[in-house]
Design a protein that fits this description.
Layout lengths: L1 H17 L2 H21 L15 E2 L5 E2 L5 E4 L4 H11 L22 H11 L9 H4 L4 E2 L5 E6 L2 E6 L2 E4 L13 E3 L9 E4 L4
Parallel strand pairs: 1-3
Antiparallel strand pairs: 2-3, 4-9, 5-6, 5-9, 6-7, 7-8
Length: 199
C-alpha cells in the first residue's frame, strides 16, 4: 500500500513537470477568473449577481466585444476590472433615461453617469451613484491602467480594459442610445480623465 501511494506521488509530480510553464500560467489565469466568476454567480459580491451568461472571459489583458453586445472580461485583469465588466453587461441594451441610475443603482433605464456608476458599483469602487459633475472629483487625475472615467459637467463614460462603456453613440457605426459597449473609442477632448489608485 505504501509503495503504491509513493508511485502515485511520483507519477503526479512527473505529470506536473511535463506541463509547459506558459500553459500552466494561462491555466492559472483561467482558474482565477473562474473563481471570481463563481463568486459573483453565487452572490459573493454585495452588489447583485449577474447571470452566468454575463460572466465570460477571454485570454489576455483586453476586454472583447461579443456579438450579443456584451463584453468578455480579460482573464489577466484584476478581479475589480472583471466585476465592473460583468456588472455592466447586466444593463446593456436598457433604455436611455435622463437621470436614470442617479437615485438607485437598480433602475428601469440609465443615463451616462448612471451607467458608469453601475459598472463601478459592480467592482465595489463606489457606494452611491454619482453624476458627471461629481465624477470630475472622483478618484485620481489621469488615465488608469485598467479603468478610466472620462467626464465633464454634461457627460461621462468609462473605458474598462480597452472597451468603452457609453450611452452616447459617438464613434459607433451601429448607433443606439443607452448603455452599450462601443467598439471604437471616441475623442476625449473636453473631458477629464479620472481613475482609482492601482487600477
Amino acid at each position: 500500500m505504501r509503495i503504491r501511494a509513493t508511485s502515485l506521488c511520483i507519477l503526479a509530480a512527473l505529470v506536473g513537470a511535463a506541463v509547459p510553464a506558459s500553459a500552466s500560467a494561462e491555466s492559472k489565469q483561467t482558474q482565477q477568473a473562474s473563481a471570481v466568476a463563481q463568486q459573483v454567480i453565487v452572490g459573493g459580491q454585495a452588489f447583485g449577481a449577474p447571470n452566468a451568461a454575463d460572466v465570460q472571459t477571454v485570454p489576455g489583458t483586453r476586454a472583447k466585444l461579443l456579438s450579443n453586445g456584451q463584453a468578455a472580461a480579460p482573464a489577466g485583469a484584476p478581479a475589480e476590472v472583471q466585476q465592473a465588466i460583468w456588472a455592466a453587461n447586466r444593463i446593456i441594451g436598457r433604455p436611455y433615461i435622463y437621470g436614470g441610475g442617479h437615485q438607485r443603482f437598480e433602475d428601469n433605464g440609465y443615463d451616462c453617469s448612471g451607467t458608469v456608476s453601475y459598472a463601478l458599483r459592480g467592482a465595489d469602487l463606489i457606494d452611491t451613484p454619482m453624476d458627471s459633475g461629481t465624477f470630475m472629483k472622483w478618484g485620481l487625475a489621469g488615465k488608469g491602467d485598467w479603468i478610466t472615467v472620462y467626464t465633464n459637467p454634461g457627460h461621462a463614460y468609462v473605458v474598462i480594459a480597452g472597451l468603452r462603456l457609453d450611452t452616447s453613440a459617438a464613434g459607433d457605426p451601429r448607433g443606439g442610445k443607452g448603455p452599450r459597449w462601443r467598439p471604437n473609442l471616441r475623442s476625449n477632448r473636453g473631458f477629464r480623465a479620472r481613475h482609482v489608485d492601482g487600477l
